[in-house]
Design brief:
By secondary structure, this protein is α/β, with parallel strands linked by helices. It has 2 domains: 2-38; 47-136, Nucleotidyltransferase, domain 5 (2-Layer Sandwich), CATH 3.30.420.270. It contains 5 helices and 7 strands. A 5-stranded mixed sheet has the order 4-3-2-5-6, with helices on one face. Strands 1-7 form a two-stranded parallel ribbon. The radius of gyration is 25 Å and the shape is elongated.
Length: 138
């Protein structure tokens, strides 16, 4: 009789080690995928010495290596860009972040900026990355 009581009490305890292992693996997966989900378009933005922290939520216009223009994560025709940005703006004083791959010709970059300015958007911030020692040696 005493043997069955001891096994019954040991079975009632929950082993937390597998639960903690699973939670830690999920935490690592979310930590790795969170920066990727921030922007689905892969762009190597230019590197500069001066960087301003961006804490505001603004509309993001991106130009990738293939010279395709995106509003957020959705591809957009450059001729419709101004109208679509205005549709998303809450007021005209808000600005737009412009992310452009460093391999894109300046003419494409200038035409996107010109399109935004013609549509009445003058607050355009260019997104860059900090210049590191490794980037200088390239």
């Amino acid at each position: 009789m005493q043997l069955s009581k001891s096994t019954q009490s040991s079975l009632s305890e929950i082993n937390m080690v597998p639960f903690v292992d699973v939670v830690l693996v999920l935490l690592i997966i979310f930590m790795i995928t969170a920066p990727i989900l921030q922007s689905g378009i892969e762009i190597d933005v230019p590197k500069t010495k001066t960087i301003k922290d961006i804490s505001q939520d603004r509309i993001v216009v991106s130009i990738d290596k293939g010279q395709h223009v995106y509003l957020g994560n959705d591809p957009v025709n450059i001729h419709q860009l101004g109208a679509k940005v205005h549709a998303q703006l809450k007021n005209t004083k808000e600005g737009v972040f412009l992310r452009c791959d460093e391999t894109v010709p300046f003419g494409i970059f200038a035409s996107v900026v010109d399109t935004l300015r013609i549509s009445g958007i003058n607050n355009i911030s260019i997104v860059t990355e900090p210049l590191t020692e490794r980037a200088r040696t390239k």
